[in-house]
Fold this sequence. Notes:
The chain has about 120 residues and is mainly α. Helices cover about 40% and strands about 0% of the residues.
Amino acid sequence: MHPLEVKGIADGEVGAAFAAMTRSRPPADARGNRQGREEPAYQLKLAVSKVRLPEVKRHRGPRYTPLSRRQDRPNAILWLVRNHPELKDAQIMRLAGTTKTTIAAIRDRTHWNSAALTPWIR
């Protein structure tokens, strides 16, 4: 503390709102609840909050794919189509985050970049 603050507190000009605390006296919250200290089997109960918060509704919109990873998506679709033919289009759509037309184009090899696609995932 600054020496002028100490002098102001000592003179009574500053810090009148500060209450002295001693270590022998427990806080006001603990003084009223002796049952928890005296009975070892006593279980404290959580107080019910008076404030009601509204439920947060998660908005599940389209996911953003960074530009650097957009070329990986058709490769992933091709890998899934070749290695797991048992997957339905809806499942591939959810896994890769793509559309049915893109999956159909990759299956039919009519995708605009089908010559450069390699069936592997980074």
